[in-house]
Design goal:
With about 210 residues, this protein is mainly α. Helix content is about 75%, strand content about 0%. The chain is elongated. It comes from Nocardioides agariphilus.
Length: about 210
């Protein structure tokens, strides 16, 4: 930990360390089969330490997913900020979605597990809604930037657009976990098809990054 940090900062840093350590176990076992003791057994931290920083597994799991999804948002925002044409943005977005499924499937599986559990448990329902709103905003930034490059506006609203892309992503995740080799390619192809349908734009008035900035 950083020298000179306040107690609150040290606590936040330790909670982040614990969350990062717990993500692998949570991604493998899911919400129902994971306890604080199980997490401690699969990390360098004792059960007492884990319990000191997190009251229960609901608090820890929510913190884990929030941490991971924040990192996801940062990576996708980088695509929005640095792409220079609609074609480049679409291609990078599609490939990043595929890469995320291939390299981080257990963590996405944990997110969908937690989101489903929130239908039955109100303890973390508000946290799930807030995380979902963040992901919806991420998706909308990609889509509206893509539309701006094409000189138009999305035909669907933010919530409907997110539902479509999230549905494609969840289905591809399931196929990937099931071992279907075409899962990634199918996802990329569907995203490449979907965005132009949502944002037909005005091809004659397509813009560059400098023009839409």
């Amino acid at each position: 930990m950083r020298s000179g940090a306040t107690r609150a900062e040290r606590t936040a840093e330790r909670r982040t360390q614990l969350a990062q350590s717990a993500l692998a176990t949570l991604g493998e076992l899911g919400y129902a089969r994971t306890s604080l003791r199980e997490i401690a057994q699969n990390s360098e931290f004792t059960h007492g330490v884990v319990h000191y920083y997190f009251a229960d597994k609901v608090e820890l799991i929510t913190h884990c997913v929030r941490l991971y999804k924040t990192q996801c948002v940062t990576r996708f925002d980088e695509i929005v900020d640095t792409s220079t044409t609609a074609e480049e943005l679409l291609e990078r977005f599609a490939l990043r979605l595929v890469e995320s499924i291939v390299t981080e499937a257990p963590l996405h599986r944990l997110w969908y597990d937690l989101r489903t559990q929130s239908l039955f448990e109100d303890a973390f329902r508000q946290d799930v809604l807030e995380i979902d709103e963040t992901l919806q905003g991420l998706t909308w930034r990609v889509v509206t930037r893509y539309a701006a490059f094409l000189g138009g506006s999305p035909l669907l609203d933010e919530r409907a657009t997110y539902a479509l892309i999230d549905g494609l992503f969840e289905k591809a995740l399931l196929h990937h976990i099931a071992g279907l080799p075409s899962a990634g390619a199918d996802l990329a192809a569907r995203v490449r098809w979907l965005l132009p349908q949502i944002c037909p734009g005005d091809k004659s008035g397509a813009s560059t990054a400098a023009e839409v900035a």
